[in-house]
Amino acid sequence: xxxxxxxxxxxxxxxxxxxxxxxxxxxxxxxxxxxxxxxxxxxxxxxxxxxxxxxxxxxxxxxxxxxxxxxxxxxxxxxxxxxxxxxxxxxxxxxxxxxxxxxxxxxxxxxxxxxxxxxxxx
Length: 122
Hints:
The protein is mainly alpha-helical. The chain has helices spanning 9-17, 25-35, 44-56, 82-121; strands spanning 23-24, 60-62, 77-80.
């Protein structure tokens, strides 16, 4: 599969959050927060602007009317299109090695910090 063009950070977070399936706006904000470990907190303006761009780009679609809803009628639901799913999977595979490098780096910093604290206490 040819590589797709890079996604802006907000778009990347949204498509990765939708890999698990359809979500409404507020649930998307919570899922992005959860997946990022609290590092990314999208406000409504960023989220809905991003959703509109992703819909226009054909990566996601609004699915509100796809099935009957028992919750608040004002909620809009979104899901990945087949192309959006392919892009999200490609990005997830690229992000995963970067996350492992960051985690290893953080663990190394943590070990060094503990060692310096132990040394300072002695």
